[in-house]
């Protein structure tokens, strides 16, 4: 029978055996097939960023390491311009400003090593080196001082603080940190270890030396001071409070940053203060983990009153300032609504 469509309902025309006024059951129509998206094929040309020599031409895009096994994915830097920035792992070819025939430039980043291995090596060395000087193993000081201990309680306190700091860093590497990049160039580990291991040995040599003297005890004989005040022990106690406060603060910031990034992702978000009071410094500083790190080493310098420690703190401050400024600029560039009152590392100063 013929059908008539009236406002979306289907009725049969009156005919033999039909009942006038009673709608017929709806007629099922086949679903329209979705149009297939056009498939775009890309042709990719890979050139050496330095020599401009053609490395390969990919008419059916396959990973570069299929052609050059020695250049595994982690050591590749692919860029649109020889002197430009490397493309990110999450960049999609069809979203890049290229046509169907794209030219990329390749640069070998060199042998790579995982960040976890780097941090474990960097932080494990200072921990062990410092303990060797603390226990005065042979061939460090005169033979008569082998395996002797210092008579100054601040020396033992300094050892506990130093060991606690690097044990904390090792545990954070294993259980807290989430890295946006999986690897770094292998050559950098030698530079980093020279820095951390060298300073640790230099500091430990003087702090644990048999001739080391702790912060001087100043006795002030003045009518306003009765009895005389001993400033040496007070200095150490104040330094210990600063050190522990900043260690807890640094750990709190690392936990807050970890919670911003889901496991396995490279998502970047603006860090904000949480219910933890140690994170409230985010209101004024972009990288408070560096702020607390600087405070810890300032406390350690005040505690030991040792010139190598002060020098290490100063060098660390310069390096962390460079990192903090870089991250601060990155935040400002990536997030338009980034809080304008924040400074990179020191509130209202730097």
Automatic annotation (TrEMBL):
GO terms for cellular component: endoplasmic reticulum; membrane. Keywords: Endoplasmic reticulum, Membrane, Oxidoreductase, Transmembrane, Transmembrane helix. GO terms for biological process: very long-chain fatty acid biosynthetic process. The keyword Transmembrane applies. Residues 183-350 form the 3-oxo-5-alpha-steroid 4-dehydrogenase C-terminal domain. It is found in: Endoplasmic reticulum; Membrane. Belongs to the steroid 5-alpha reductase family. The chain crosses the membrane at residues 113-133, 238-257, 278-300, 306-324. One of its GO terms (molecular function) is oxidoreductase activity, acting on the CH-CH group of donors. Residues 9-30 are annotated as: Disordered. This is Trans-2,3-enoyl-CoA reductase b. It is a multi-pass membrane protein. The keyword Disulfide bond does not apply. Residues 42-108 form the TECR-like N-terminal domain. It comes from Oncorhynchus mykiss (Rainbow trout).
């Amino acid at each position: 029978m013929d059908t008539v469509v009236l406002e979306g309902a289907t009725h049969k025309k009156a005919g033999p055996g039909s009942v006038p006024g009673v709608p017929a059951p709806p007629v099922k129509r086949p679903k329209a097939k979705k149009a297939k998206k056009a498939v775009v094929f890309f042709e990719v040309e890979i050139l050496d960023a330095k020599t401009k020599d053609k490395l390969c031409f990919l008419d059916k895009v396959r990973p570069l390491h299929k052609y050059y096994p020695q250049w595994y994915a982690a050591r590749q830097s692919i860029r649109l311009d020889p002197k430009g920035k490397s493309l990110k792992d999450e960049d999609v070819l069809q979203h890049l400003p290229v046509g169907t025939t794209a030219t990329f430039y390749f640069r070998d980043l060199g042998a790579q090593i995982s960040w976890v291995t780097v941090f474990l090596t960097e932080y494990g060395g200072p921990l062990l080196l410092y303990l060797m000087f603390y226990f005065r193993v042979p061939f460090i000081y005169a033979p008569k001082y082998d395996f002797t201990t210092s008579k100054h309680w601040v020396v033992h306190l300094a050892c506990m603080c130093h060991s606690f700091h690097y044990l904390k860093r090792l545990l954070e590497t294993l259980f807290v940190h989430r890295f946006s990049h999986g690897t770094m160039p292998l050559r950098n580990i030698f530079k980093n270890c020279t820095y951390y291991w060298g300073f640790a040995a230099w500091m430990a040599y003087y702090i644990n030396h048999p001739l080391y003297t702790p912060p001087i005890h100043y006795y002030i004989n003045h009518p306003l001071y009765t009895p005389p005040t001993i400033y040496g022990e007070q200095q150490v106690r104040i330094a210990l409070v600063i050190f522990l406060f900043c260690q807890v603060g640094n750990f709190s910031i690392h936990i807050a940053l970890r919670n911003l990034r889901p496991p396995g992702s490279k998502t970047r978000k603006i860090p904000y203060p949480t219910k933890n009071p140690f994170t409230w410094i985010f209101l004024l500083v972009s990288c408070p983990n560096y702020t607390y790190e600087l405070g810890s080493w300032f406390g350690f310098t005040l505690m030991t009153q040792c010139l190598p420690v002060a020098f290490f703190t100063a060098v660390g401050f310069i390096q962390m300032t460079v990192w903090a400024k870089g991250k601060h600029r990155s935040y400002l560039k990536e997030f338009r609504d980034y809080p304008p009152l924040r400074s990179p590392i020191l509130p209202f100063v730097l």
